[in-house]
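Lecture 7 notes: from sequence to structure.
We start with the chain below.
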Amino acid sequence: MSDPGLASPVVNPAQQHHRTGASAPTGTQLHDLTALEQAAAVRAGEVSATELVEHCLARIEALDAGLGAFITVTPERALAAAAAADGAVVAGGDLPALHGVPTAIKDLNNTAGIRTTFGSAVLTDFVPDVDDAVVAALAAAGTISLGKTSTPEFGFPCYTDNDLVGPTRCPWDTTKLAGGSSGGAAAAVAAGLLPFAQGSDGGGSIRIPAGVNGLFGIKPSRGRVSNAPYGSEVTALGVQGPIARTVRDAAAMLDAMAGPVPGDPFWAPPLPPGETFLAAADRPPGRLRVGRYLDSGMPGAELDPEVRAAFEDASQLLASLGHEVEDMPGPPLTEGVFPAFEVVWALSATTLPVPDAAVPQLRPLTRFLRDRGLALSARDVMAAMFTLRLFARRLIQATSRHDVVLAPICTMPPRSVGWFDADGDGAADFERQTRYAAFPAVYNITGQPAVSVPLWWTAEGLPVGSMLVGRPADEATLIALSAQLEAARPWAFRHPAMW
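Predicted structure tokens for the same chain:
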């Protein structure tokens, strides 16, 4: 395998720049290249897909024991796919947009012939016979999966820890958690194990780990990316999306993932003919009206000064770029919205593919949610669903005068390993999570697109992301604005020491 490049220097933030060329500058390691740079280099014959895959596999072997980013690594399959990709380059002809670029699939998604644990020791040996639609779409775009990234048990927590590989740690400080539930994906990208990775988001699970790890993540609109063949359509909260170092990489990945499958219950309107999300990253956003708020409405949720500083800094940057930034009230939360969300979240735990005899093997939080969900009446569930649907309608109407909304993602900087669940009490764990991740879930309720932008690092060197929310089905404006922010304050080549 290629040298993993563990001695690569940390890039000085003052020397960061935005590269768009295909080939690597002198001294650049393969993992320094963006996904689009890698694709261009493969297409031009400057590097092979096999070299890229070997390089990433070497870094996983060298670094992942201290991160816990992967549950399953599939080197044989990845190398076989890379050899086929190299053969296609030699043969000539049209190649897909991301041909030969390494990635990985979150272990909440089914992968045919590859074990899919859903982060649970109960399903350690489960091997599905079908790919989820998003898995097939990424393969069709030319990406090569190196395996399955870590997720907490059934994706319920906003941090990543499980009984298979333990906690997933933030590469910026491995005493801290990487966030969740797409924590493995984010840790892998932040540590340079992958250029980008697929995640999913049912209550902040892309935005939280992207913010914790200094990355850009997109929670797409409901119906933008298919959840076929199974998915989470009953609650309509969960969506699939990209986690990447650059806006352009994330946009290109979203282009690859987007699109309905016959039978999907929701469809986001397609982009106009000939337009792409990647093209949106290359055009000015225009002058936007940005509403901002700091009050999540969550009882007991207090903002850390670093989060407030990140929010004010993002506001000032937006204003300096010519946007109209104005204060607005927080979400119009009625007294029942958070309890209703908790009811629906617990409802998701009632149909876990776990036999009754194996329930004692579940982690305390999962057991707590399952027990709570099974205690619900049909009336409880219908009332909660009605409350959330009405709230979504009112929130979209209340924010309709703004092109974009700015808010924090989490109320605190990254948390230490064990902070949520050290006492083994599922109910207490859940309560800590609701205070920590007080902002993102409302936009899973509304179905609006939202992104995490990495604009702030604490004095200790920990990333604190901020959230931008778009109008329904308007990922393009968010991508254009995020690319403008990235150009004004480049972040993509600011790396943790292990880089």
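Points to note: The chain has one domain: 30-488. DSSP finds 15 helices and 13 strands in the chain.
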